[in-house]
């Protein structure tokens, strides 16, 4: 059967039908899918089509592409319109295709126009025959196929989205119709008043059919009698063009930028909270014949791009106005356009949704995988450990727990920066507080506490990370004890050392809005993460981060805070005296320090009596060795040292924090290849080192063990 039967007299057909392209050389637009070298163009020319779905607005060339395929392919071509046909026509097409395949070994291409109009059962009826190759489906739809077409059909088809034609393409369409002597108006001299053809093109809004219909009306109604004698001139005025396109219009400037300039002025007026200007540009667009639906689309975009979370209600208002407009239409629909415009122009503004593009850039730049604890553990938890370590927020206070949700390569990256406008201001503090806690816990995960001391390799002795269950609570506990008993004025300057997690730094920053916070960190990663985060704080007085211990500054500070900077006491006790010059007279020294000799020891967590005895003997030697800078001091040592430096009003308290830790087998190997092993050999115990290590591994490795750390918190006056 012939899909596109023609009639003997082409001029009994509308111009749009007569000018349908007969091959790809006559096809204008859609260069992204049928331009030279494109996949679809190659497939059509090579007659190697697989199932296709053409998706796009009316007048963009979907049916025309089907006609080109029909004129090119050697396959049988069957056409069905989904509006006019049902299961009966599908069965007839299947029978014809099956017979053609069986008798002649030829393929059949089934073209279904408006395929979205079929219901699910009708679409399902096609599926087996597409799968077994009885025919190749070519569907055309104005609706999004991912929502309106059976997902099984979509998954077996290539989907090509056709866009509204560019103005340059529409001019080519008009030129072809004007110059074609056989199917168009090439037998006459068609002239246009300046701006008349441009008006037809602009008002066609990317729809070739609309342009050809308007062109046909303009040309054939201009002479008193059509057709006039061959070679006569037909002059199309701007007024004729306006009447033909059936929209009121104003003249466009010579560059054709009216549409873009006006919508730009409209959106910028909304963004600038000028309701008068926004109303003027709205009225000007509607008077010029701009599509109300286009304006509503731009209002919807603005509701998220320029208002966003400053007023989450904005998107609902515009959506409701758009729905109301669909029901009412013009002219009364102008009320809904006006309401949406005034709402967006007068509400609070925030462009934080632009954060998406920062996240997208990170996706494109970084190759990452989902962190293990965030992976789906329902399928392969036992095989690969996916999902292990994930903390279920609802099981914690306030239904929140600090844990990492970004890949390791993006630790500390900030995309969303909440504004201080409208509703977003109400969540700003919560977002920032949680983010600071996330960063603090994330950076505190780096091993800090040490179990033994080896002069040649301190890094080797640093041991396992904490688990995250109680870490945030412990950090908050220490932070509150440090600050709650410290009398702070808003203008104080803080020097903070050792706060690689940032919790103390951010707290000082919040408590001293007119002051200055300088924070020195030890780790390069902490330096980079905290530096990056501080750039997101909208304040000229944001904390300043430096890498190291001694600052390069001439500023004097009311408060010096040291966090775990005296762990190897003999080696680090001179640090405070070196920093005295930075503390103002009557300034405050505040320090928090874990005391290794008073914290949990291995012997505390082992229940095996014989092994416990061995560990107690080893620890007795290690913790009583006067030369060991890790264990040869306690809280009294710190207090006396501060007193010797001349500080007064010394207050101190001891705090114990407990958290779950996981001891790895390699940690045990490290300890017994170092100081624990050396002492074990010195004690001349009958138990071999290998035996002790094996027993320890079997008893405590890979298990969550409560570990208590003892801290001294000290406050003093210079």
TrEMBL record:
Gene Ontology biological process terms from the UniProt entry: DNA synthesis involved in DNA repair; DNA-templated DNA replication
Classification via CDD domains: AAA, HLD_clamp_RarA
Any Pfam family matching the protein: AAA
Domain of life: Bacteria
Any one Gene Ontology molecular-function term assigned to this protein's record: ATP hydrolysis activity
Keywords: ATP-binding, DNA replication, Nucleotide-binding
NCBIfam families: PRK13341.1-2, PRK13341.1-4
Full protein name: Replication-associated recombination protein A
């Amino acid at each position: 059967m012939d899909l596109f039967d023609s009639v003997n007299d082409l001029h009994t057909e509308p111009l749009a039908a007569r000018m349908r392209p007969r091959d790809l050389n006559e096809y204008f637009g859609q260069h992204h899918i049928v331009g030279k070298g494109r996949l679809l163009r190659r497939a059509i020319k090579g007659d190697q089509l697989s199932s296709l779905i053409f998706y796009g607005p009316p007048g963009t060339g979907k049916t025309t592409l089907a006609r080109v395929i029909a004129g090119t392919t050697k396959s049988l071509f069957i056409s069905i319109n989904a509006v006019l046909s049902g299961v009966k026509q599908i069965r007839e097409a299947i029978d014809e295709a099956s017979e053609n395949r069986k008798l002649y070994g030829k393929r059949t291409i089934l073209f279904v126009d408006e395929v979205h109009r079929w219901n699910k059962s009708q679409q399902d009826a096609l599926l087996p025959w597409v799968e077994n190759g009885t025919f190749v489906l070519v569907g055309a739809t104005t609706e999004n196929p991912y929502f309106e077409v059976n997902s099984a059909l979509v998954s077996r088809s290539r989907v090509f989205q056709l866009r509204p034609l560019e103005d340059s393409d529409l001019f080519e369409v008009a030129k072809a119709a004007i110059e074609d002597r056989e199917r168009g108006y090439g037998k006459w001299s068609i002239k246009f008043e300046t701006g008349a053809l441009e008006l037809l093109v602009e008002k066609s809004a990317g729809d070739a059919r609309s342009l050809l219909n308007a062109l046909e009306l303009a040309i054939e109604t201009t002479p008193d009698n059509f057709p006039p004698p061959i070679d006569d001139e037909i002059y199309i005025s701007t007024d004729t063009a306006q009447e033909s396109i059936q929209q009121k219009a104003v003249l466009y400037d010579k560059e054709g930028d009216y549409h873009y300039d006006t919508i730009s002025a409209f959106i910028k007026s909304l963004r600038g909270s000028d309701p008068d200007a926004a109303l003027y540009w709205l009225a000007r667009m509607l008077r010029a014949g701009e599509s109300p639906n286009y304006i509503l689309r731009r209002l919807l975009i603005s509701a998220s791009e320029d208002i966003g979370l400053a007023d989450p209600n904005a998107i609902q208002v515009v959506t409701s106005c758009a729905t109301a407009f669909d029901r009412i239409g013009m002219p009364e629909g102008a009320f809904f356009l006006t309401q949406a415009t005034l709402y967006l122009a007068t509400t609070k503004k925030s462009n934080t949704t632009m954060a998406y593009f920062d996240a997208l850039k990170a996706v494109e730049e970084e190759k990452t995988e989902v962190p293990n604890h965030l992976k789906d553990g329902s399928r392969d938890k036992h095989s690969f450990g996916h999902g292990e370590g994930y903390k279920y927020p609802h099981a914690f206070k306030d239904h929140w727990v600090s844990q990492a949700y970004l890949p390791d390569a993006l630790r500390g990256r900030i995309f969303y920066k909440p504004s201080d406008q409208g509703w977003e201001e109400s969540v700003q503090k919560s977002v920032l507080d949680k983010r600071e806690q996330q960063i603090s816990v994330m950076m505190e995960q780096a091993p800090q506490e040490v179990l033994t001391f080896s002069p040649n390799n301190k890094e080797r002795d640093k041991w396992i990370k904490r688990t995250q269950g109680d870490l945030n609570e412990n950090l908050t506990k220490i932070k509150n004890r440090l600050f709650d008993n410290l009398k702070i004025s808003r203008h104080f300057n803080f020097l903070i050392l050792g706060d690689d997690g940032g919790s103390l730094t951010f707290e000082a920053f919040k408590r001293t809005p007119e002051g200055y916070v300088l924070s020195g960190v030890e780790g390069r990663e902490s330096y980079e993460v905290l530096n990056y985060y501080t750039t997101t704080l909208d304040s000229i007085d944001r904390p300043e981060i430096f890498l190291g211990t001694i600052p390069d500054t001439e500023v004097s500070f009311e408060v010096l805070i040291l966090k775990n900077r005296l762990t190897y006491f003999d080696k680090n006790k001179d640090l405070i005296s070196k920093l005295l010059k930075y503390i103002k007279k009557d300034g405050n020294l505040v320090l928090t320090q874990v005391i290794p000799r008073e914290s949990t020891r291995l012997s505390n967590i082992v229940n095996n009596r014989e092994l416990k005895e061995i560990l107690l003997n080893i620890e007795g030697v290690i913790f009583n060795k006067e030369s060991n800078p890790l264990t040869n001091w306690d809280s009294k040592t710190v207090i006396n040292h501060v007193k010797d430096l001349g500080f007064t009003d010394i207050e101190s308290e001891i705090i114990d924090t407990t958290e779950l830790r996981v001891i790895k087998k390699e940690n045990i190997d490290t300890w017994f290849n170092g100081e624990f092993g050396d002492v074990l050999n010195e004690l001349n115990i009958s138990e071999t080192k290998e035996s002790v290590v094996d027993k320890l591994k079997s008893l405590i490795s890979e298990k969550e063990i409560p570990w208590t750390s003892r801290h001294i918190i000290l406050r003093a006056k210079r």
